[in-house]
Amino acid sequence: MRIAALVSLLLCTLPGGSMADKPRVNRGMIEAMEKSVDWRLQRLWPGDAAEVLGLTQGAYINGYGVVFMSEINIAPTAGITPFHPTVTPDEIKRTHDKKIQRIAALKDSMREILQDSAASLDTVPDDQQVTLGVSLFYWTWEKRDGLPGQIVMHASKKVLLQAKAGTADKGAIVSDEF
Most buried pick, 53, 115, 170, 172, via CB within 10 A? Predict the structure, then answer.
């Protein structure tokens, strides 16, 4: 029994990580960023708001960095209801066109959110990633040509802070669409 306890203590003192390591980022920091992401996505188009579906979820992954995920409907419509049983071809086109127009603003906002998040997450090491993934909501009747299902952006905290300060190209923020 003493040997097992001694081995456990020895493992906890080894360099490079151990069972006793505390996360670099506490839950309160993650929650503050989750709320900030939701708030900013909801206010992208003040007169014609997007719908943030559910709450943004964030996590710190030791050795990688922080990841935030959200889902948004960037052009809410009535959809099919008992009071609106069909969707017209004109509504389908208008919804598609509106979403196409809004993608660029969403991407710009995501870059800004990443940069601001990097500035707020003091305990995340500069070489670790800050990642934001946004899944886009679509009704089954929607035309999705030219529209992604998900946009994921990330960069190291150092690059994000440099981009925020204007000393790095915003193109250094990796953006993938799926």
Answer: 115
Q: Which residue has the tokens 């990330």?
A: 154
Write down the domain spans for the chain.
23-177
The answer to whether 164 touches 116, Cβ cutoff 8 Å, is: yes
User: Which tens digit of pLDDT belongs to each residue from 34-71?
Assistant: 999 999 999 999 999 999 999 999 999 999 999 999 99
The sign of the torsion formed by the CA atoms of 41, 43, 49, 54 equals: positive
SS (H, E, C) 16-44: CCCCCCCCCCCHHHHHHHHHHHHHHHHCC
Q: Which two tokens stand for residue 82?
A: 């008992």
- Tens of pLDDT along 125-144? 999 999 999 999 999 999 99
CA–CA dist 107, 158 (Å, integer)? 20
| All residues at 6 or more sequence positions from 80 whose CB lies less than 8 Å from its CB, including other chains | 86, 87, 139, 141
Q: Identify how many contiguous H helices and E strands the chain contains and give both numbers.
A: 4, 6
b/e map 104-135, b = 16+ CB within 10 Å: eebbebbbebbbbbbeebeebeeebbbbbbbb
